[in-house]
Structures are given as structure tokens and as C-alpha cells.
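pls read this protein.

:::
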Amino acid sequence: MIEPTTLVVASSNRGKIVEFGSLAAGLAVEIVSVNEALPEQLSIVEDGETFEANAMLKAHAVAEATLMLTLADDSGLEVDALGGRPGVRSARFAHDRATDAENNAALLAALADVEDDRRTARFRCVLALADPWAPAAAAPIIARGSCEGSIAREPRGTGGFGYDPLFIVRGKNCTMAELSDVEKNSLSHRALALAALRPMLAALLESRWHQARKAVSTI
């Protein structure tokens, strides 16, 4: 049996930590937040122009600071009528220290005059898995997921976080915040990205386990 490996999630967002814990069920990992792994807060400037760039930046920084396997995500909302905004600034759409409520209000204001059939949008997620013990030239493992939908005219539902109360999932007459945890974890952008990542993470965990056993046997 493979011993559980600590996997640091490069986020302090409790909603994301809970989601990743549920989505990683069955894998030989023990998930901890970056706040649990580091005694002092790590300052990371997310100045990448793409979700991929920010995810890799966070994964590398936390992996180097903790010397632990690190999973980072960068995710956000792309609204077609806004030219893809808020995009990488999804968490800071209203202003740099915006709350979820402020960002939702800013989004509704920006779309106030946009008709229903032009309110199409998608959630995107990019995951980056960084191994601090990998060769220096090794690139992080990358996985992607997206969920199509549209933007409601007012918040609906009490679940989730971020823009979930405004995001109507394509094919369902409800917002992401109205879905059960089981439903959300079957179709969300993070769920789809982690589903793509799972086999690669499982292979890495098995490889690390075999390497550790080999090192022990040579002592």
C-alpha cells in the first residue's frame, strides 16, 4: 500500500480546500492548505497574464518554500460580452481586496444592459502540480477544465463561493450555488481539471513511493 503523501494546496481559500479534499478522495494524499504548511504567510504576486502562468507561479513558489508536493490552481470566470473579463482578475474584479459579494455586484453592474442571450460565460480552471524533488528542468504537471454557462440577473442559491450564485450551468436550470456538492463535483471546472490530473498525480505518487522503497532497501 502506498503511504499517504502530504499535498499542499497553494491556497488559503477554505472553499477551494474543501472542494479539493472531496475531489481527491481515494488518492494517497493528505491535503493541507498553504497556511497549515507554512508558519508565516507567503507573499505571491499573481501577475501572470494567463491562468496557466499564475498556476505555475504559485505551485513553484509554495513547493520551494515547503519542500512538499504542491498543487496550485488559477481559475476564474470569462464572460463573452465583457471580452473574456474578469478572467485572471476574477478575484479582484471590483477592486484588489474585493469580497465575493462586491465582485458579484460589479459583474451584475457591468452586464446590466446585456440581454439574456448574450450573457454566455464559462468557468476555467488550470491546475499545476509542482514536485520540489523533481529535476530542475522538469516542468509542472498541468491539467485544465472548463464549465460552460451564462450569467443570471441576480444571485441564486447559498452553496459554493465566488461567482457561483450568478453562474447558470449550461443544461441545468440552476446556478452553481444551487447544486449539491455531489452535483458540483461532477461538472465544475475544478472537478474536470482534477479528473484530468488524477492519473498523472497517481502515477507520480506511485513513482515516488517506489523510489523511497528502493532508497530504503539500499541502506
Remarks:
- The beta strands are 5-9, 29-33, 69-79, 120-130, 141-151, 167-169.
